[in-house]
Specification:
heterodimer, A: 227 residues, mainly beta, 14-stranded antiparallel β-sheet, globular, disordered N terminus, B: 236 residues, 1 helix, 14 strands
């Protein structure tokens, strides 16, 4: 009885354990070129790599607005900034960001507990196609995260994409590659440097700004090369 | 959102023209002040090195040269008036990271060049393949559209992203004015030589025309992305 109550309570909160993932180390990484500020240093057109090391057993699902969203809240996160020959690696404080993948709406990246799902950085369709997820498209998407959402919503649209796209489907517990347009937005909307809640790191507060460009997100399950 | 679309379409036309024109471009030295320059391209894709295949691997291509060796494409003497830059003289290498594996290799001389079309907005690591050494602007790995189209030259430091192509036979758009084949050629006949064996890179994720299975176009035909950087002054 207690178990039933506990499950019901979890569903009310919109969180439910995924349960099917076998324990394995997992590394989520997002690669982008963007602008922002770390500590007192502003950066422009820097290569930004956010890495989150966790375990697949911590992947959960969140139910919201008819969509299943996968997330992983527990892990060690770092941000690496490379600008020219300079490189800085900052460790993101615990409890700042989590991994979030919304396969129905084609969005993947890192969300903030304090700010929301669209900050500090994520990848999406970029509004490139006029196609609406769940409907037949006349024009395909050109990013993996949105192509997967397209096919998940309307299966026959698979004809737009090479067959091996399907192998990139993920629930954050299997290795994959996702691409998308880089996005970063405070909620409520505000210039990112004015976000009331920054991301705390051991090199100071981190802010990322929206920038036009393409990004790469990977999930790597299993033992990885050590830095 | 609309701006992105417009920019993307401009990028298609630009890079197609660039690829078409680049074969016949004449070049002239830029006269840049001599400084070490390092170009790096990154993507996650499928590659093969020395007979070993790597799936969804992190692939880094690096080219180290000198800004004094950057050559300027001269639009006044090219049929399509394309301007841009290329650098042929330098040392190229690659790094593959796949799980716990980390494999490095050095390209043998004259395997790769770095090119940039500033008129049309595309660039990256190119090659001259086959007995005729025909230019392949999008093989082994080049970008088009997105921020790569804002790269001013090959001597200014910066980092750029774009749609990643590893395509022999680019541009492929079957529609006029390109009239391409709609397909990338199999790289099996065009190995890039390294000190660890032959290197091949593939383009596994494509957008197709459902009617004939050909690649959608020269911009949205690839689902993959890459990051290209120019670092000046740092010794490797």
């Amino acid at each position: 009885m207690k178990q039933i109550i506990a499950i019901g309570f979890a569903l009310v909160l919109g969180l439910a354990a995924h349960g099917s993932a076998r324990a394995a180390p997992v590394v989520y990484t997002l690669y982008a070129v963007t602008d922002g500020k770390l500590g007192s240093q502003t950066f422009s057109q820097a290569q930004v790599t956010v890495t989150f090391k966790g375990d697949t057993t911590h992947v959960t699902t969140e139910q919201g607005q008819g969509a299943v969203v996968y997330r992983n809240d527990h892990g060690d996160a770092t941000v690496t900034l490379t600008q020219g020959a300079s490189k800085a690696v900052a460790h993101i404080a615990d409890g700042q960001i989590y991994v979030r993948y919304d396969p129905k709406n084609g969005a993947v990246g890192f969300a903030s507990f304090a700010v929301g799902p669209t900050y500090p950085i994520y990848l999406d369709s970029g509004g490139f196609s006029d196609c609406i997820y769940g409907h037949q498209c006349l024009y395909p998407f050109n990013q993996i995260v949105s192509a997967l959402a397209d096919v998940a919503g309307y299966g026959p649209d698979q004809a737009f994409y090479s067959m091996n796209l399907e192998a990139l489907s993920t629930n954050l517990t299997n290795s994959t590659l996702l691409t998308g347009y880089v996005d970063s937005a405070c909620m409520p909307p505000a210039p990112s440097v004015a976000c009331s809640s920054s991301i705390h790191t051991d090199l100071g507060d981190l802010y990322l700004q929206y920038s036009y460009g393409k990004g790469i997100f990977t999930v790597e399950v299993g033992e990885q090369e050590e830095d | 959102m609309t701006c992105r679309k417009v920019a993307s379409l401009i990028g298609i036309v630009r890079f197609v023209l660039a690829a078409t024109a680049a074969v016949g471009c004449l070049v002239a030295s830029t006269g840049a002040i001599a400084a070490p320059v390092t170009y790096t391209m990154f993507a996650v894709t499928d590659v093969s090195l020395g007979g070993r295949h790597f799936h969804k691997a992190q692939v880094y291509l690096k080219f180290v040269g000198n800004t004094d060796d950057i050559l300027q494409l001269n639009p006044d003497v090219t049929a399509d008036g394309v301007s841009g830059y290329k650098i042929v003289k330098g040392k190229a290498s690659l790094l593959i990271i796949n799980g716990k594996l980390r494999v490095k290799a050095n390209f043998l001389p004259d395997q790769l060049l770095v090119s940039l079309d500033t008129t049309n907005g595309g660039g990256g690591f190119s090659s001259q393949l086959g007995a005729a050494h025909h230019l392949e602007p999008a093989y082994p790995l080049a970008l088009d559209a997105s921020t790569i189209s804002s790269a001013p030259d090959l001597a200014t430091p910066g980092a750029y992203s774009g749609h990643a192509w590893s395509c022999i036979g680019f541009p492929v758009d079957p529609d006029p004015p390109v009239g391409g084949s709609g397909q990338c050629s199999d790289p099996a006949s065009f190995p890039l030589k390294t000190d660890r064996g032959d290197f091949f890179i593939y383009q596994p994720y494509l957008v197709l025309d459902p009617l004939d299975g050909k690649i959608h176009d020269d911009y949205s035909g690839t689902l993959n992305n890459g990051i290209f950087s120019v670092v000046v002054g740092a010794r490797d």
